[in-house]
Amino acid sequence: MTVTQTQTRPAVAAPATGGHLSTAQGVALYVGAVLGTGVIALPALAARAAGPASLIAWVALVVASIPLAATFAALGARHPDSGGVSTYARRAYGPRAGAIVGWWFYAAVPAGAPAAALFAGGSLEAAFGGGEATVYGTGLALFAVVGITNYFGVRISGRMQLILAGVLVTLLLVTALAALPQADLGNLRPFAPHGWLAVGSAAALLIWSFAGWEAVTHLAAEFRTPARSLPRATAAAIIVVGGLYLLIAGAVILVLGSSAGATDAPLAELLGRAFGAPAKAAAAIVALLLTLGVMNTYHAGAAKLGAALGRDGALPAWLARGSQAGEVPRRSLLLTMALGLTGFAIVALTGVGTESLVLATTGCFVAVYALGTLAATRLLPRRTPGWWTAVAAVVTVVAMLVATGPYLLWPLLVGGAALLYLRRRPAQSSGSTNSRA
After folding, report:
1. Which residues, at least 6 apart from 355, have a Cβ–Cβ distance to it below 8 Å?
2. Which of 53, 186, 306, 355 could share a disulfide with 332, CB 3.0–4.6 Å?
3. What is the C-alpha to C-alpha distance for residues 63 and 362, in angstroms, rounded to an integer?
4. How many CA atoms lie less than 13 Å away from 351 in the CB half-sphere?
C-alpha cells in the first residue's frame, strides 16, 4: 500500500456546500442507519449468550460507539465529500487505500440489503402468514421503495427518513414503556448465569447493532452546513440510538426474565405482554420500518460513494455522474440495486440462509472502520480533542476486529479485487486522485 505525505493541519471546516439536508434529517438518517434491524432480534440473542449480564455488553457498546461516531462526524465536517471514509483514507494513505475502503463499503451494501429485506419479510410472514410469497414479496417491495425514493434524490429520501425515524422512535418507546410496568428486578438474578466471559460473546453479537456511524459521511456534502449540522446530528443520534437500545434491552431482561433468550422476537413478546394478541402485527410493522430505514440510508450513501469512486478512477468513469453535491447518482444507484437484487435472488433460489450475508457485511464494515479511524489520526489536528477521540476510536475498532475474526476474509478478497482493478487502470486512478487530494 502506498503511503503519501499529508498536511498535519487540515483545512478549516467547510462552510455551506449547497446541500439541503437539515440537522433533523441528519439525525433521522443516523437513526435509520444505526438502530437497524438489530433491535428486533439481538436483545434476545445477547440474553441467550450472557443472561442479564448482557446489559453490560449493551452499555459497553453504547459507550464505545461515542468516539467512533464523533470521529466520523469530525471528518465529515472538515472534509464533506460523497466519497466519505474512502476519501479520508485516500487523503491520509493514498489512492489505493481510498479505493479499497470504497470497495469495502460498496460490497457491503449489496450483501447486507438482501439479508435485511428477508428479515423484514420473515417478520411479516410470522404475523400474517403467507409463507415464502410473503417473505420474498416483502423483500422485493422494500427494494422497490428504496430504489424509487433514492432515484429522485436525497431530498425526497431525507424527508422520508425523517418521517420513518419519528414513527420508529415512537413505536419503540411505546413498546418499552408499556411493558415496563411488568418489570421485575428479580429477573436480574442470577446476573451472570453463563459466567463473566459470556459478556464478551454477547458483545461480539451486538457489533452488528452499532454498525452505521460511517454511513452518513457519504452524505456530508448534502448538508446545508456540514461543519455545524453534522456534529449536532451525530450527538443527537447517539442519545436517541443509545437510549432506545438500552431501554429495549433492559425491558427484555426485566420483563421477559429467563424466557428472554428463548424467543426469536423479543419485541413481539414485549408488545404481547402489554397489549395482547395483536402484538405480532405491531412488531412486524416495527421490523418493516426499521428495515426500510436501514436500506434507505445505506443505498443513498452507497450510490453517492459509487459515483465518487467513478470520479476518482477506482470504478468505471461511467458511474461518476452524480458525485457532486445536489446531483443524483442514478447510475451508481442502479448498479447497487442490481447487485443487491442479485444477492436476493441467490438466497431465494438456493434457499441459503441470510447468516453468511450478515457476517460478510459485518466484516466489511469493521474493516472500513479500521482504515477510517486510522485516517482520522492523520487528518485531524494532533493532540486536539478530535484527535484524541480518533485514537480512542482506533482502540475500539481493534476490539471489533478481534471479535470479527475469520469473517475478515471477505473484505480481504474485496480489497484484493480493488488492487487488481487499480493495477489495470493506474493512469486514471492516480491522475484523478492527485487532482483532488
Report:
1. none
2. 306
3. 19
4. 0
* The 3-state secondary structure of 118-131, one letter per residue: HHHHHHHHHHHCCH
* Intra-chain end-to-end CA distance of the chain, in Å: 17
Q: For domain 23-436, which architecture applies?
A: Up-down Bundle (1.20)
Peptide bond into 329 cis (omega under 30): no
Global model pTM greater than 0.70: yes
Q: What is the pLDDT of residues 158-181, one digit of tens each?
A: 676 667 777 778 888 888 888 888
Reduced to 3 states, what is the DSSP secondary structure of residue 271?
Answer: helix
24-41 per-position pLDDT tens digit = 777 877 777 777 677 777
Other CB atoms within 10 A of residue 128 CB = 12
Give the three cell numbers for residue 132: 415464502
Cell of 44: 434476545
**Phi and psi, residue 223, nearest 5°:** -75, 150
Residues 6+ apart with CB under 8 A from 63: none
Sketch the domain layout of the chain as residue ranges: 23-436
* 320 closest CA partner among 434, 428, 422: 428
Nearest to 432 by CA among 90, 92, 89, 6: 90
